[in-house]
Amino acid sequence: MRESAREMAEVFDRLDELETRAGADEEAIRCVENSLGRRLPSEYRAFLLASDGAVGFVGEERYVNLWRVEYLLEANAGYQVERFWPGVTLIGTNGGGDAFGFVWEDGRAQYICFPFLGSEEDSLEKSQHLWAVLLGDAGQG
Q1: Other CB atoms within 10 Å distance of the CB of residue 99
Q2: What residues form DSSP beta bridges with 100?
Q3: Cα distance between residue 66 and residue 9, in whole Å
Q4: Three-state SS for 21?
Q5: Cβ-Cβ contacts under 8 Å for 66 (sequence gap 6 or more)
Q6: Residue-level pLDDT at 130
Q7: Could you tell me the mean pLDDT of each successive run of 10 residues in the chain, 141 residues long?
Q8: Residue 99 is part of a domain; what is its CATH number?
Q9: In whole angstroms, what is the distance from residue 23 CA to residue 83 CA?
Q10: Residue 127's pLDDT is what?
Q11: How many domains, in total, are found in the chain?
C-alpha cells in the first residue's frame, strides 16, 4: 500500500491546482467499507491514504471536489444513491451537475462520471482508472 501512496503523491505533484489534504486514517476507511458492505477500489484507497479528499482543477478546465472519507456515507445517503443508482458509490462532484463515483463490474472497479439529472448511457464516462475519469480521459479505460 505504501507503493500506491507514493504513486498518488507523484500524481499530486503534477496537479498543482489540486488542493490535497493529509491522508485518511486506515481505520476510518475500513469503517466506511464495513458500512458500505464492500471494499473500496485499491486505487481509490491509495488516494484516500495519500489525501483525504481534494478540491481544485485537474487538467485545464475540469474541477473536482473529492469528498473526505468521513463524508462518503452521509453524501451517498443524502443523494439517495441506492435508490437512484443501485450499486454505485459516489466519491465526489465537479461542483456543478456531475457526480464522480465507482461501480463494481465483473469483479473490477469502474470509475464513472455522470450527470446527477438523468443518467443516459451516452453521457456516462467510465474507466478502470480513477484519474482517467477525473481528467476527462475516460474513453481509453
Answers
A1: 20
A2: 92, 113
A3: 16
A4: coil
A5: 47, 53, 54, 55, 91, 92, 100, 134
A6: 78
A7: 55 69 95 93 93 87 91 95 91 92 92 77 68 65 43
A8: 3.40.1580.10
A9: 30
A10: 78
A11: 1
pTM above 0.90, yes or no: no
Q: Which grid cell is 67?
A: 469528498
Q: Which domain holds residue 81?
A: 2-140
Helix/strand/coil for 52: coil
96 CB burial (10 A radius; 0-12, 13-18, 19+) = exposed
Mapped onto helix, strand or coil, the DSSP state of residue 82 is: helix
> Whose CA is closest to 137, among 104, 103, 113?
113
User: Which amino acid makes up residue 1?
Assistant: M
**How many separate helices (H) and strands (E) can be counted in the chain?**
6, 7
Residue 42's contacts (CB-CB under 8 Å, 6 or more residues apart) are: 4
